Amino acid sequence: MIALLLALLIAQPLLADSNLPPAYWSDRELPDPKQEAQAQALMNELRCLVCQGQSIADSDAELAGDMRDLVRRRISEGEKPAAVRAWLIQRYGSWISYRPTAEPAAWPLWLAPIGLLLVGALLIRRRIKLKARP
Amino acid sequence: MSRAVRFAPLILLAVLLAGLIWRLATPADTIVKSKLTGKPVPAFALPAMLNGKPALASSDLATGQPHLVNLFASWCVPCIGEAPVLGALERNGVKIDGIAVRDRPDDVMEFFARHGDPYERIGSDEQSEVQIALGSSGVPESFVVDGRGVVRYQHIGPIEPRDVPRILAKLEQAK
Q1: Domain containing residue A116
Q2: pTM
Q3: Do A95 and A106 sit in the same domain of this protein?
């Protein structure tokens, strides 16, 4: 048990972080609350490349911090959030954005609720019919 | 209730379990490829990392000759394994340019003293800015850039000896 604890203490992550401090805007709010809100909304919808499954707003990875810095800097320079998102999609594909697109690959996602509603309606109709019988 | 309907939940469960077991046995691919392959390198100009070693800008890549652009860091463990392979490529006449991600000159010098320096130019990418602009998601990563500055190939992870023929072929195609 003690050996295991020691081993856990000594163990280092394989992909260590750099020795440089975090980027300036990575954990600092923009002075303009409207711009900060725009940046927050966008950062919550961008996927972290390191901790895949987390947004860059939630991730502690350094690359996520650098991406937050990039998002805040560009938005403070007056760039539209949609343009920043498009710039990142150009590099990493629509994978980087959590917001579903209208691409054919995403059609099942949009159609599923309609399909499920139809199935539900059919089921209810059948039940009502069965009950109506004396 | 008909027999088919009665067994439906069980069949659903079996399908769900089969799906879960399949995904556990063969995890989904987590590699994110850059979409810039086939497109020009985005314009950038990084400051020099070391004294006496030229800096790296996108204009240095469009020189009529293919380049291998290698993103590395002194704090990156797999980069140690890649270093001798890069050294061998350099001795074979491959022009290798480095982008040092989130690094300090002292640490880079120490890394070179131990593992060798195959680079012609090294740009310092302090906030992963150029890394993100290239659509790279980690270190080490390498890009084959042709003589007109167009990205031809991306290699994710360390270049291992078995990858060398493919890298050389991609560089040959990029001529």
Answers
A1: 101-134
A2: 0.83
A3: no
